Sequence to fold (153 residues):
Amino acid sequence: MKGFFIITVFGAMLGLLVCCGTHKKAFSEIRNVEFTVLRNYYFNSDAIVPDNPIVTTREQFEKLFGAAAVMGKYGIPTTIDFKRQFVIGIVLPLTNDETEVVPTHLTTDGKMLVLYYKVNMGARNMSSTMRPMALVAVDRLHLAGECLLQREW
Fold:
């Protein structure tokens, strides 16, 4: 009886160590990825928001987004080098509320990217509508098959 008890306790401890070790390993594989927020672009009104927010070619990008150059020092749209970078787009539904989309951080586990963002609300019930969006450029080294967009509250 005493031998059975010792084996049971030993087995439970071994199982606990294995579970904890696997759990730590899974979380250690998730790492942050650097990105550049792209400025002065808009979502084309006749485009359909794609299921996967990753854009890998200039042709695909130009079907979805347009450049919105404005006067001033920071009026030129951010340059994108599609040979070295790909783009992730966050596009929200049309609204008549002033809305800003702010990408906060990007993570990867090697198979999937997760882009976290916040939404800042301004004036409500404006007389015009807008399509809130944000774009980020990421080094192609981090290109994954899937990208999840996760809003932070």
